[in-house]
Amino acid sequence: MSSNTSTSTNATATPSAALKEWPLWEVFVRSKQGLEHKHCGSLHASDAQHALQMARDVYTRRQEGVSIWVVQSASIAASQPDDKAEFFEPSGDKVYRHPTFYEIPDAVGHM
After folding, report:
1. Considering the entire predicted model, what is its pTM?
2. What is the C-alpha separation between 32 and 80, in angstroms, rounded?
3. Which domains are assigned to the chain?
4. Residues 37-78 pLDDT 10s
């Protein structure tokens, strides 16, 4: 009787539990007016093609996008909050890295 119980428990697994077994994907969408892709959110999908289809359905329902990128969350390398000083403070004293010494022409509309 216990074997029937374990079989029925596995057969009635909730869909949300099954979704969590799929890898997590980060979704980036480029809008019609945008020049860059922006992070829109995350979703669980079985593979890259499935993630693209789900991202299209979830994040571009109103046809606002022209391009979608999906990246497995596990593949993203990110700095840690404790590394803030090491990564970002050394550039504060290098003013030559910032475009503040010239004016941008009016013809350049996207900057």
Report:
1. 0.62
2. 32
3. 14-97 (3.10.20.520)
4. 999 999 999 999 999 999 999 999 888 889 999 999 999 999
